[in-house]
Q: What sequence folds into this?
């Protein structure tokens, strides 16, 4: 099983980034996919999730209206489009796959929002 995140980097406040997470080794379409983030000295928090059945999404209040999660089951990939980025969005972003009691994590990608 592998979850490989990409797309992180350094961006100025107000800018945009698109994160991708390529999955392999499991039946991607059966899993709820999520993005989490962890800032230095803080606990890991859920940013956005998209379910497997209907593509229903949910977001942390702090990113609503700015971030969009989507998935392409044909490509086994989940995306996080991040717009209007703020310095407080700086964190390591992790991809997660969840189904029943099974939980997979990627290695994370750093997002830094700074002028």
A:
């Amino acid at each position: 099983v592998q979850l490989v995140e990409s797309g992180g980097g350094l961006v100025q406040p107000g800018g945009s980034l698109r994160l991708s997470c390529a999955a392999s080794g499991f039946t991607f379409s059966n899993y709820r996919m999520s993005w989490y983030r962890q800032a230095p000295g803080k606990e890991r928090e859920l940013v956005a999730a998209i379910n497997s059945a209907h593509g229903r999404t949910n977001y942390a209040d702090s990113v609503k209206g700015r971030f969009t999660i989507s998935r392409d089951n044909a490509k086994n990939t989940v995306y996080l489009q991040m717009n209007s980025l703020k310095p407080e969005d700086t964190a390591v972003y992790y991809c997660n796959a969840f189904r029943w009691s099974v939980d997979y994590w990627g290695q994370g990608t750093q997002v830094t929002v700074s002028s």
Summary: The first strand starts at residue 2 and ends at 6. The chain has a mean pLDDT of 96. The two ends are 37 Å apart (CA to CA).
